[in-house]
Amino acid sequence: MQTTSGPPTLPLRLDRTADAPLATQLATGIRRLVGAGTLRRGTRLPASRALAVELGVSRAVVTQAYEQLVAEGWLDASHGSGTFVAGTATARPPS
Hints:
Blueprint: H1 22-35, H2 48-55, H3 59-72, E1 75-78, E2 82-85
Antiparallel strand pairs: 1-2
Helix pairs in contact: 1-3, 2-3
């Protein structure tokens, strides 16, 4: 039986006055949450549209951050199934 409560919201804040792009800030924040154990392997992340609304950014910002983290091995994503934490064992630090 599925619950109606969606994935947890992420305890992140983005700084619009910072030099770093918003997508970079978001990706860094997610990496930190995974590294700290706040987001554990298999945790489903919010949908890009929902997170964009929550953070007050465009969906493109969230999509770019998620795509970067998938490329680095931090997240697993499947179209239509969601985005999940892959676990730190497979994550590679950014080069």
